[in-house]
Specification:
single chain, Rossmann fold, eight-stranded mixed β-sheet, 13 helices, binds adenosine-5'-triphosphate
């Protein structure tokens, strides 16, 4: 089983890193922990949130909003940006408007462009396409001045986006980067619970279908036995601990070789640089006591 630390050493050119998973499993915390680790090794890191609801500010305990790249205070070499959805959508709508008009002119079609633009830009998938387009910018432009670019949001997929990809040469270039296992890795974040594990299983199939290279699985919020099973901890925690162990068995059975790292459940939320530093350290070194035993049995 390759650990996260080993994987990062094996693939030093891994520049584009994604964390994906079900809502609330710790995608942002894991991405920030990774960013902090790589930055502590001297890399210039860009951590980009493409989520309409941002959490980088609260995670680092400082304001990182406004859509600009900001260096995180107290975390040297970590640069963060919370991409503003409304801004991106507006800019994208203007560029689509231009392209549709140009096309109608080029094809000599004497039609009013407005209905076409209306249809193209009020599509429910439009926002997602706009954000994807912005992500491509980070990969091909802004990302160039960073050693690592980490996105804390999953890449979704839809037919409109597929059209755009084939339409646009820029996307072809981005695609070349995104399917290169030397340069890109997609990490799945999960909790040791049935539903998020099922989501990861489904996501893996999807990601494979699009040839996106898989980095592996990060398991978050692991209960430590010395906490959960100590005298006085109560039956609830002990039950939770055994429940997690049972789900970990399932995870090792189904996806064992892909498990890369673990984050324990902390006694408080992940807020502030000191907590992010802890996540980064645990991601690289923490091994739950049951891991060796269960992985061996799988
Ligand atoms: N190991 C942990 N121990 C304690 N709290 C944690 C841990 N990991 C994450 N949290 C807390 O759980 C909440 C969700 O984490 P996070 O924001 O990283 O998840 P997410 O998958 O990015 O969520 P979303 O889908 O909303 O973007 C946050 O309040 C975070 O501080
Ligand atoms: Mg998040």
């Amino acid at each position: 089983m390759t650990t996260l630390l080993e994987l990062l050493e094996q693939r030093p050119k891994m520049r584009y890193i994604f964390t994906g998973g079900k809502g609330g499993v710790g995608k942002t915390a894991a991405a920030a922990g990774l960013a902090y680790y790589l930055a502590s090794k001297g890399d210039r890191v860009l951590l980009a949130s493409l989520n309409p609801v941002h959490s980088l500010s609260s995670l680092f305990g400082q304001s990182l909003s406004g859509g600009k790249v900001i260096e995180v205070k107290g975390a040297k070499n970590v640069h963060a940006v919370e991409v503003e959805t409304s801004e991106v959508v507006e800019r994208y709508r203007n560029s689509i408007r231009g392209r549709v008009k140009e096309f109608l002119k080029w094809a000599d079609i004497p039609l009013d462009a407005r209905p076409f633009i209306e249809i193209a830009t009020t599509n429910p998938a439009f926002e997602e396409s706009a954000m994807f387009d912005r992500m491509v910018d980070y990969i091909l432009k802004e990302g160039e001045s960073f050693d690592r670019v980490i996105f804390e949001e999953e890449v979704r997929k839809d037919p409109l986006m597929a059209d755009l990809i084939s339409m646009n040469e820029r996307f072809e270039k981005a695609k070349g980067v995104l399917v290169d296992p030397e340069r890109t890795a997609f990490f799945f974040v999960t909790l040791p619970l049935a539903l998020p594990i099922a989501v990861v299983r489904r996501f893996i199939g999807m990601v494979q279908k699009f040839n996106i290279p898989i980095g592996g699985v990060i398991v978050n919020e692991i209960l430590r036995p010395e906490v959960a099973l100590q005298t006085g901890a109560g039956e609830y925690l002990a039950n939770k601990y055994h429940e997690q162990t049972a789900y970990m068995k399932v995870l090792y059975r189904d996806l064992g070789p892909l498990v890369r790292g673990y984050i324990p459940l902390y006694s408080s939320e992940v807020t502030g640089v000191e907590m992010v530093r802890r996540v980064s350290e645990d991601l690289m070194s923490y091994t739950p006591s049951f891991a060796a035993e269960l992985a061996g049995a799988a």
